[in-house]
Amino acid sequence: MLHHIVLFRFHDHLDAAAIAAVQADFAALVPATGVVADFRHGPDCSPEGLAQGFSHGWLLQFAGVAERDAYLTHPAHQQFVAMVQPLLAAALVFDFVD
């Protein structure tokens, strides 16, 4: 199983509606790409205060590297990335296999 972690730090000027739209668009990638085995997301709720401004996170799971690579190159994912990049102050992506 390949775990794909995505964290977003949105620009300060974005309102809750804009962030909710991003969340919906991100979730729409699951059926659009057809390669995501599991999808979870939510806002940061850690009491540790170590999020460094990253407010929302996603965990996508793929059967393996080939499925992850198909997701990354899928036109729906590429469109999402182009749409969301201007809304972000930063993004962090981290993958691992277990």
UniProtKB/TrEMBL annotation:
It comes from the Bacteria. Pfam families: Dabb. SMART domains: Dabb. InterPro entries: Dabb, Dimeric_a/b-barrel, HS1/DABB1-like. Residues 2-96 form the Stress-response A/B barrel domain. Homodimer. This is Dabb family protein. It comes from Vogesella facilis.
